[in-house]
């Protein structure tokens, strides 16, 4: 069962939250971040090239232009592969664990899985500099949806669903 | 216990039982929720024929790890015997967990009764019944408890979650739990690491179950990841066979070399002193230790030891290859001759620059007014040293090419040895700078201590050595007079000495920086775990940071099917976990203590050699 809703993030960009209910104890939340805008990309490229042309006219060395090409390409590749996150997913499987996946713009996937035995609770923590919605460990706090930065209304939806599953989990005895 | 073999079940009238094998119990809020059972099923058995499920039941996690499928026909007593053997050999509690049914169309009634009957022969709580249709590829599973019913008379059922795993990858991978936090106990971490680590351990320790394949003529027919044919490679077998005698030979050679190294001749002074100062000897010793470790005849006890050995071997091989490349580059095109020809003029040039510097200091450097007499003395003293040094270099110049040629041969021992020799050559060639630095520092240090002591006299205080503190003291008039005189003299001579000290310290720091960079490179080559990084690149499932799940099937009325894949360790963690120990320690000064030492004129030793105490 799939469901899509639209929210805004902290900076005002548009976020899409997709909820999938696979089963009563398995749910997935996908948060899609705003895509890379052509405007900002063009602006950065133009800025780099203006600086390169300025230096070239000063020093008359064509290596500067080649260096500018390299820097732009490598910078773009690095940004797409290491920085720009397209989608963040939270998969909760009751009695197994919680899995958080980040999908980068270059297709890279980075996954973290925390076993249910290690998760103490999922809370919304209101802090100015740190991102909200964190599952607690004994001495470690793991933030979720760090790069999408959703607002409170979106988080409340996710929080309610997660707490339903965790409540189920806590109600069932763990040993036969 | 029936002793006749259980025949393959024959299809009877095709009345489907109607839903009972395909509906897992859903939990509704109005009803008390059942326990969630996790069944780990190997992907290789998904297309196997019907039979019995064999594996391990982990009650704490409520999970059943299926290791293999026993096919019909079988004799129950032989199956039990096999399982007992496996249990003894691997110390894993392998039992029959349930039944597996892979059929063409809807299940028949007779089959259902037959499968139920099996649960009476091989009792297990809970009894799993996995089912798959060939045509529609639909899965269904059901777990029943016979002994602990919720309502008496009827067996209770659990919800089951199917998790598929790749048996071969899980068998071969090593799980790296996240780093233990400093405030947690080590025992705590292993206890809480249960769960998925239990699954990995079960599969890894049950290797003896996977030894046979379907071409074996055993009493019991099994299906697992190796049932199509046991994996093997001729090269690997040959290497294993040859490694025994080879290791023995190399170990004896290495013990001979190390025995020669500890011979009494090397204890004669000044050889140990020189040996401790040269980084080449340090590097050679380190390499000898590493090679002894690699070629030792004991088998590696744990995977981390094995990785260490492999990393060391590959690192040494890489080092030697790079060294040979350097050697071929140096000895081709008469580069040694060019280098030797360039060396003496460079040394001359350096000496000339130093002379210019001293002339500048002896004049009015940067417009400062120096004390002429002291200036001249110090300047001439250092100029004489430079003159000696230049004569020495000119004396050596006919032999330099020969020496360089022979030293270049040492590159075949490895690039790190060649770099260490380079660092030692740099140290030898700039020995005069080191001497100047020591002279300047000692002079400056004496001056500073003298000044501080006389300053205390000026104020009527004294340093009490017994109590290690400053005490007041009454001086005679003579003492005060001489003390004040000396104090004044020292104060006015301070700028000159300080300037010489500053200049030579900067030169020394420059040389130390160059040597430090070379040592950094040597450390990098020494400690980089190439084998682990290569393994992470080519076989990422071998080094696992954890697992990741993917939801495969989630139709209503069918059990939830997940695929468990291995999440490989990131490269930074691989390099950090498996890095080899490097020789020599990193400098232990903080910036604050370094500045303090520089200000008071204490000598700095930028790196500690083994056994060397700080002055």
From TrEMBL, chain A:
Source species taxonomy: Eukaryota, Metazoa, Chordata, Craniata, Vertebrata
Pfam families tied to this protein: PIG-H (PF10181)
Membrane-spanning parts: 36-56, 62-82
Presence of keyword Protein biosynthesis: no
Gene Ontology terms: cellular component: glycosylphosphatidylinositol-N-acetylglucosaminyltransferase (GPI-GnT) complex
Organism of this sequence: Dipodomys ordii (Ord's kangaroo rat)
Record keywords, A-Z: Glycosyltransferase, Membrane, Transferase, Transmembrane, Transmembrane helix
Protein name: Phosphatidylinositol N-acetylglucosaminyltransferase subunit H isoform X3
InterPro entries: PIG-H, PIGH-H_dom
Gene Ontology MF: a single term: glycosyltransferase activity
Boundaries of every Phosphatidylinositol N-acetylglucosaminyltransferase subunit H conserved domain copy: 89-130
From TrEMBL, chain B:
GO cellular component, one term: membrane
GO molecular function terms noted in the UniProt entry: glycosyltransferase activity
InterPro entries, sorted: PigQ/GPI1
Pfam family of the protein (one): Gpi1
Alphabetized UniProt keyword annotations: Glycosyltransferase, Membrane, Transferase, Transmembrane, Transmembrane helix
Region of interest (Disordered), residue spans: 1-27
Transmembrane segments: 248-269, 310-330, 377-395, 407-430, 479-503, 509-533
GO biological process terms held by the UniProt record: GPI anchor biosynthetic process
Protein name: Phosphatidylinositol N-acetylglucosaminyltransferase subunit Q isoform X1
């Amino acid at each position: 069962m799939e469901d899509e809703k639209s929210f805004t993030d902290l900076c005002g960009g548009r976020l899409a939250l997709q909820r999938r209910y696979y089963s009563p104890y398995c749910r997935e939340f996908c948060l899609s971040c705003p895509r890379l805008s052509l405007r900002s990309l063009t602006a950065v490229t133009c800025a780099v090239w203006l600086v390169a042309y300025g230096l070239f006219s000063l020093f008359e060395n064509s290596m500067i232009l080649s260096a500018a090409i390299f820097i732009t390409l490598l910078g773009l590749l690095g940004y797409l592969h290491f920085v720009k996150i397209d989608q963040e997913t939270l998969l909760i499987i009751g009695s197994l664990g919680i899995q958080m996946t980040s999908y980068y713009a270059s297709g890279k996937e980075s996954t973290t899985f925390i076993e249910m035995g290690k998760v103490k609770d999922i809370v919304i923590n209101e802090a100015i500099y740190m991102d909200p919605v964190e599952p607690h460990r004994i001495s470690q706090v793991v933030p979720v949806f760090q790069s999408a930065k959703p607002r409170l209304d979106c988080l409340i939806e996710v929080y309610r669903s997660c707490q339903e599953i965790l409540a189920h989990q806590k109600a069932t005895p763990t040993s036969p | 216990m029936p002793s006749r073999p259980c025949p393959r079940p024959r299809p009877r009238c095709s009345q489907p039982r109607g839903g009972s094998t395909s509906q897992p119990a859903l939990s509704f809020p109005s009803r008390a929720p059942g326990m969630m059972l996790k069944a780990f099923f190997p992907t290789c058995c998904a297309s196997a024929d019907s039979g019995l499920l064999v594996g391990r039941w982990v009650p704490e996690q409520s999970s059943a790890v299926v290791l293999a499928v026993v096919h019909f026909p079988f004799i129950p007593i032989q199956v039990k015997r096999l399982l007992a053997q496996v249990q003894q050999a691997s110390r894993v509690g392998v039992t029959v967990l349930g039944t597996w049914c892979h059929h063409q169309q809807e299940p028949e009634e007779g089959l259902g009764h037959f499968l139920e009957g099996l649960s009476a022969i091989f009792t297990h709580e809970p009894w799993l019944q996995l089912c798959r249709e060939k045509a529609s590829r639909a899965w269904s599973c059901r777990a029943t408890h016979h002994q602990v019913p919720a309502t008496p008379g009827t067996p209770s059922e659990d919800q089951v979650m199917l998790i598929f795993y790749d048996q071969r990858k899980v068998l071969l991978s090593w799980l790296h739990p996240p780093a233990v936090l400093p405030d947690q106990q080590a025992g705590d971490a292993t206890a809480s690491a249960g769960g998925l680590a239990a699954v990995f351990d079960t599969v890894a320790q049950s290797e003896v179950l996977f030894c046979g394949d379907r071409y074996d003529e055993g009493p019991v027919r099994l299906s697992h990841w190796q049932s199509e044919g046991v994996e093997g490679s001729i090269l690997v077998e040959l290497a294993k066979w040859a490694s025994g005698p080879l290791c023995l030979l190399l170990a004896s050679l290495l013990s001979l070399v190390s025995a020669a190294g500890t011979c009494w001749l090397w204890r004669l002074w000044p050889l140990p002193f020189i040996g401790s100062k040269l980084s080449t000897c340090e590097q050679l010793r380190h390499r000898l230790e590493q090679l002894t470790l690699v070629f030792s005849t004991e088998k590696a006890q744990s995977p981390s030891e094995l990785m260490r050995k492999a990393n060391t071997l590959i690192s040494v091989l890489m080092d030697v290859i790079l060294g040979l490349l350097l050697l071929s580059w140096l000895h081709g095109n008469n580069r040694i001759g060019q280098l030797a020809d360039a060396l003496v003029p460079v040394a001359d040039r350096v000496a000339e620059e130093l002379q210019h510097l001293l002339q500048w200091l002896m004049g009015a450097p940067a417009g400062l007014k120096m004390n002429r007499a002291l200036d001249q003395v110090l300047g001439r003293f250092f100029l004489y040293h430079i003159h000696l040094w230049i004569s020495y270099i000119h004396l050596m110049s006919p032999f330099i090419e020969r020496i360089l040629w022979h030293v270049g041969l040492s590159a075949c021992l490895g690039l790190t040895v060649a770099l260490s020799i380079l660092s030692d050559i740099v140290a030898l060639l700039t020995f005069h700078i080191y001497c100047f630095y020591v002279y300047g520092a000692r002079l400056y240090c004496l001056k500073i201590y003298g000044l501080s002591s006389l300053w205390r006299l000026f104020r009527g205080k004294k340093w009490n050595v017994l109590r290690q503190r400053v005490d007041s003291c009454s001086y005679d008039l003579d003492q005060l007079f001489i003390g004040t005189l000396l104090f004044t003299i020292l104060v006015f001579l301070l700028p000159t000495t300080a300037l010489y000290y500053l200049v030579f310290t900067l030169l020394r720091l420059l040389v130390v920086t160059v040597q430090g960079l070379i040592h950094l490179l040597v450390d990098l080559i020494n400690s980089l775990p190439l084998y682990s990084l290569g393994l992470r690149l080519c076989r990422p499932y071998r080094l696992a940071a954890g697992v990741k799940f993917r939801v495969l099937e989630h139709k209503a009325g069918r059990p939830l099917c997940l695929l468990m894949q291995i999440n490989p360790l990131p490269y930074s963690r691989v390099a950090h976990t498996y890095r080899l120990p490097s020789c020599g320690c990193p400098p232990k000064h903080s910036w604050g203590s370094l500045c303090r030492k520089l200000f008071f004129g204490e000598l700095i030793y930028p790196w500690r050699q083994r056994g060397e105490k700080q002055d």
